């Protein structure tokens, strides 16, 4: 996840004038901190008094219209880069609908809005942590998205707002994370995609798609990365032979290992060792 832009806007134009919007290939968080505004999005109008927080997936046209004399907003544009932290379109729509009909004093919602209010504090010139402002903001964004996802899951368990699809998505993510931890602990063993899918209790093609969506790589690519990172560490810190290292990290062929290593690091294992030995 990468922070593309963060800013605040104090809307001072005439009542009802179109205040901003458009379309872009990035995820966006839109927070109304003061006043009332209407969001036109996905064919719907959401009239929302502050505090209100909208989540906008990429490539979805939107238009914000001020509805009160005083109106302040903050917005954040994100390049998620295959991260699964942001709600998908259907659940973003579910959350956004709630902004027009909500009780901001509800403890669960109050905590979310309080977190949103604080996200822009790191930008203050008076902040003693201005040098690490972007890192702090990214932590706040992850926290905010996690809180919203948890809120929706809790509502789902009460059968009030959402269907089983969100739980299925959450369950799949948990299974993939379990598989990732398994791979990190057992990378040197003989691992196949079929074995991993079986451990995750998922059909193979679905497992590969879900893994790629969450991790940004196929299971085999991720396994190769783990093995190559381990091999580089052995090359740098031990006197093990290249053949021994090949076997120690789980590759069956030294030629296959050497080819993948050169693709990743640009040189052969032996040459890499000569340049990086501690």
UniProtKB/TrEMBL annotation:
GO molecular function, one term: DNA-binding transcription factor activity
Domain HTH araC/xylS-type, first and last residues per copy: 177-275
Keywords: DNA-binding, Transcription, Transcription regulation
UniProt xrefs under SUPFAM superfamilies: Homeodomain-like, Regulatory protein AraC
Alphabetical list of Pfam families matching this protein: AraC_binding, HTH_18
Annotated protein name in UniProt: AraC family transcriptional regulator
Organism: Paenibacillus whitsoniae
């Amino acid at each position: 996840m990468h922070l593309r832009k963060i800013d605040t806007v104090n809307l001072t134009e005439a009542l009802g004038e179109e205040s901003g919007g458009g379309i872009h290939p990035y995820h966006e968080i839109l927070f109304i901190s003061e006043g009332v505004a209407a969001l036109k999005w996905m064919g719907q109008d959401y009239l929302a008094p502050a505090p209100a927080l909208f989540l906008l997936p990429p490539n979805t046209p939107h238009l914000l219209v001020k509805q009160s004399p005083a109106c302040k907003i903050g917005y954040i544009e994100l390049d998620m880069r295959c991260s699964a932290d942001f709600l998908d379109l259907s659940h973003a729509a579910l959350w956004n609908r709630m902004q027009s009909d909500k009780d901001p004093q509800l403890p669960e919602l109050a905590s979310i809005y309080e977190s949103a209010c604080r996200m822009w504090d790191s930008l203050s010139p008076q902040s003693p942590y201005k040098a690490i402002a972007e890192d702090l903001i990214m932590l706040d964004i992850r926290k905010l998205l996690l809180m919203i996802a948890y809120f929706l899951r809790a509502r789902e368990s009460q059968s009030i707002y959402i269907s089983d699809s969100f739980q299925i998505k959450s369950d799949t993510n948990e299974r993939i994370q379990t598989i990732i931890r398994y791979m990190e602990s057992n990378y040197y063993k003989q691992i196949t995609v079929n074995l991993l899918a079986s451990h995750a209790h998922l059909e193979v093609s679905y497992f590969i798609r879900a893994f790629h969506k969450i991790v940004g790589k196929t299971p085999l690519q991720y396994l190769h990365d783990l093995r190559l990172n381990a091999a580089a560490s052995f090359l740098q810190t031990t006197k093990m032979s290249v053949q021994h290292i090949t076997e120690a990290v789980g590759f069956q062929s030294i030629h296959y290992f050497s080819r993948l290593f050169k693709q990743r690091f640009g040189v052969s294992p032996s040459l890499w060792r000569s340049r990086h030995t501690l």
